[in-house]
Amino acid sequence: MATKNILIVPGDGIGQEVTAVGKKVLDAIAIKFGHTFHYDEALIGHVAIEATGEALPAESLQKMRQSDAVLFGAVGHPKYDNDPSAKVRPEQGLLKMRKELGLYANLRPIKLFDELLSASSIKPEILKGADILFFRELTGDIYFGEKGRKNDGDTAYDVAEYSKYEVERIGRKAFEAARTRKKKLCSVDKANVLETSRLWREVIQKLALEYPDVEVEHQFVDSTAMMLIKNPCRFDVVVTANLFGDILTDEASQIAGSMGMLASASIGDGTGVYEPIHGSAHDITGKGIANPLASILSAALLLDISFGMKEESELIISAVDQVLKQGFRTVDIADKSTKPEQILGTDAMGAAVLKFL
Ligand code: NAD
User: Fold this and answer.
1) Can you tell me which atom of ligand 1 is nearest the CA of 11?
2) Per-residue pLDDT at 122
3) Greater model confidence, 3 or 116
4) Is 190 a catalytic residue?
5) Measured in angstroms, how far is the CA atom of residue 158 from the centroid of ligand 1?
6) pLDDT at 279
7) For the domain bounded by 1-113+258-357, which CATH number is listed?
């Protein structure tokens, strides 16, 4: 029986809707296992800008630092997507949170629930058995380097930078994880063209000497993008830089059927942040149809990684599995075989998972 402080940071759009469901699942686990979870809430993104003028107010950051783990939703608003000149933007809150909390590793488990084989746009026989754990570096690369305009604004630049230290610390996390799985690690780069990738490869090759039990392959990002669709089962643990990871993990989300199914953990040396990989999805905000399973699975990751509560985490995953086995679906993962009465909204899907818990 443990006592923990969990900060709920719903953010924008469907972030609000799905995080509320994720929290209910944490509540159910606390009751079932006799834990005490204390909750607080904090603002980030568009809602924070509206309230304070900042995408990540100092108060939110302080609450994050003081909590044992953060359950996060999403940030983003169409107002900013269509206004490239906006100086304060919701995404700045996300990037600042990652930087300030030192969240350098983003873990994205991509595992297809068997019941969703037909929900993916990839053929079931190619997908069956796919189980990949991505490690995306989160605090370096082109997102954080110098950026700007020159030549009277006619030319723009974003500088990609990595230090050996940054590559080594994420590399180590990936090697350690590979050891607990199939002992296979694929490091993805573009070392034929990019200097940052050549440094990346050099560091991973050196680290490999410390993990002789792990089989390492180096693959270019372009061929990885192709192989993920052609033969996803050939991958186990994949480690890559921030930009490549951003794109490849969205591509890989199709293996799991929908963005609404995928959870992620962002970890460093302090508080971990757990969030669905999807964004604020304003096209469906307020309709009550967002899939809450990614937030529920994020809560499971939180319990496992930040609190070491394996049994609790596995119970949540099996509850999700049971709900899917019963045929219940949100719209994004429904297919021709789903009966209309099995299509659930956000809260009803949450209630179905709670029932199994
Ligand atoms: P998105 O992930 O919000 O949505 C992409 C598509 O997937 C949409 O059609 C949406 O309806 C659908 N979708 C996403 N999550 C779903 C769910 N849980 N259930 C059902 N359907 C779901 O990406 P986008 O449309 O490119 O971006 C929308 C906003 O989100 C933008 O402002 C963007 O900047 C932001 N964004 C934020 C994050 C984050 O906070 N981590 C990540 C990606 C995008």
Assistant:
1) 40
2) 85
3) 3
4) yes
5) 24
6) 93
7) 3.40.718.10
Q: Tell me which H or E stretch contains 351.
A: helix 346-356
Superfamily per CATH, domain 121-255:
Isopropylmalate Dehydrogenase (3.40.718.10)
CB contact set of 25 (below 8 Å; sequence gap of 6+): 296, 299, 316, 350, 353, 354, 357
Ligand 1, atom nearest to 331 Cα: 20
Query: Which pLDDT tens digit goes with each residue over 120-179?
Result: 788 888 988 899 999 999 989 999 899 999 999 999 999 999 999 999 999 999 999 999
Question: Could you tell me the pLDDT band of residue 12, with boundaries at 50, 70 and 90?
Answer: very high
Q: Is the CB of 290 under 6 A from ligand 1?
A: yes
Q: Is 143 a catalytic residue?
A: yes
Q: Which is the closest atom of ligand 1 to the Cα of 292?
A: 18
Domains 1-113+258-357 and 121-255 share a fold: yes
Write down the domain spans for the chain: 1-113+258-357, 121-255
For residue 38, the 8-state DSSP code is E
C-alpha span between 332 and 120 (Å, rounded): 10
Q: Is 283 in the pocket of ligand 1 (CB under 6 A)?
A: yes
Assess whether pLDDT exceeds 80 at residue 118.
no
Question: How many angstroms is it from 168 CA to the middle of ligand 1?
Answer: 31
Pairing of strands 105-111, 263-267: antiparallel
